[in-house]
Amino acid sequence: GDGVYEVVLILNGKLIDLDGHIRRLERSLNEIEIQLSFNLKIFEPIINRLMKMNFLKNGIVYIQVTRGVASRDHKYPKSVNASIVMTIKHINISQKLQKNGQKAITVEDQRWKRRDIKTIQLLPNCIAKEKANKEGAYEAIMIMGDGTVSEGSSSNVWLVKKNQLITREANFNILNGITRKAILKIAKVKNLNIEERKFDIKEMLDSDEVFITSATSIVTGITEIDGKKINNGKIGSISKKLRDYYFS
Ligand code: PMP
After folding, report:
1. Would you call 161 a catalytic residue per the annotation?
2. What's the pLDDT at 247?
């Protein structure tokens, strides 16, 4: 688990928000004191080469940096070179862009207290996602000890209430999604009211619309949570608009 990662979406041969992902990778690396001996700008030409070699137009690139090879110890080893692995994967983008709403369940957030670091230690997220999968749901929305929603197992969660956008403020409690940042920017340009604050399950279930964002889910409408329909089981108009703006 001693490493961090990024997933970047590739649409029509273009890397979406690569700079934001590289900046977050740099931040995660700094937080756990992994130093790279080169400028992170080098990732872009290498990813482009990977895309060419694989004739890839739509998909994702996975970038993983771990501390490096050393004898097992809890302390950070001295003078070791970080290990970097990048893989690239085709995805069926038309399926991804489907407009259907998805189901979600709520689960207890069992993670640690530095969720802002994009660690490869994803076991609690995997357990949550598998529970959703077994229950026929797309995402597991994680609930903290105080009853508030932190985020999805691999996404950020948003509410729409009376035309107001609500999403949890970014601090140690959530991963500050690059898609989250992009949607915040779009919402500001479109003059939507935004509140970055906590909300609990009840507020979520009572809201007009719920959607999630991530590099791979982009903007995905959530139309049912724990068996309760949101917006009568239909994707809301603001969720739809934000998704369309993201692609325009
Ligand atoms: N939270 C968690 C826990 C995630 O794993 C992800 C996806 N990496 C996100 C939020 C969304 O981040 P992004 O928009 O950068 O993909």
Report:
1. no
2. 83
